[in-house]
Amino acid sequence: MTKKKRSYIIFAVIALVIGYIIFDSTSQPNVNDLKGNFKEVAVYRNENNTGPIVRVYAVTVQGEPWEEMQKYGDLMPYTKYGSTKVYFFDEQKPFPKTLKPGEQNFESSFNSACIASYTKDPNGQVSLNKNPF
Description:
Elements: H1 3-26, E1 39-45, E2 54-61, H2 66-75, E3 83-90, E4 114-120, E5 126-130
Parallel strand pairs: 2-3
Antiparallel strand pairs: 1-2, 3-4, 4-5
């Protein structure tokens, strides 16, 4: 095999690998691929970067696509030993515009509009609760 032919083969292999990496990174699922017209309306993240990171999201959704809610929660950021909570609200009903830390993450007046909650705890255990309040 000539040196020129070998360099073409190496170039082709490198181009294929780069092409695969680009294809794989751009074809990853994201929240826009899910059915239910999910819209993030409020976010809370604690400012503590040295301890467990707590993330809380309020999201509006059309209908009650339970499987899609599970997938949405799985796509949200999570830090080992931290926690992620996602509250799903019917888009036709009132929803919180701000969230806060603690057990109660929003005003109790919005409890009746919350159709589901997704939680990923510090141990990585996931749960989706329908009508959590």
